[in-house]
Design goal:
disordered N terminus, about 170 residues, mainly alpha
């Protein structure tokens, strides 16, 4: 159940970030579509993964600095998937971390036979995701450093993906 919840939330956040990218102002899109170089070919997968993580942190730090409310701050954590020893890094808004924690507590209470308060409705989560998308779009339109960090994140992600395709 929790794994399905994590997958659903991760897909919602990925979709929200994709929508933000598609709705960027023209100057930000041009920055994100700079001519691609081949420097990624000379780097290891590990190095590109580190560059991607650093670009993510730079973008989220820049966004967190200017967004309107701390519930929309994007926080990255290393977590262990339920039923696995594999650790993965996951970045999502504070309200999503809170929602996951609330869902897990409610699940534990119900499993123990004790009723708990009803979790936040998924429509509330969707509304907050829409607001997060608007916050990100606004931050990129109004703050050049956020738009530049987003463009650098897109380039780092593209380089990493190209390396992974080349190795497969």
């Amino acid at each position: 159940m929790k794994n399905l919840l994590n997958i659903g939330i991760r897909n919602l956040l990925a979709g929200a970030l994709l929508c933000v990218a598609l709705s960027l102002p023209a100057h930000s899109q041009e920055a994100a579509q700079t001519v691609e170089d081949d420097s990624w070919r000379d780097k290891s997968e590990r190095q590109l993964r580190r560059e991607l993580r650093d670009a993510e942190e730079t973008f989220f730090d820049a966004f967190n600095e200017v967004n309107s409310h701390k519930q929309y701050d994007v926080i990255c954590k290393t977590t262990t998937a339920l039923g696995s020893r594999k650790r993965e890094r996951k970045c999502q808004a504070r309200f999503l971390w809170d929602y996951e924690e609330e869902m897990a507590e409610n699940y534990a209470r119900r499993s123990a036979g004790s009723p708990g308060p009803a979790p936040a409705a998924s429509s509330d989560v969707q509304t907050k995701l829409d607001t997060l998308r608007a916050e990100m779009s606004s931050a990129m339109a109004e703050h050049a450093d956020v738009a530049e960090a987003f463009a650098a994140l897109n380039q780092a992600k593209r380089s990493y993906e190209l390396k992974m395709q080349e190795e497969n």
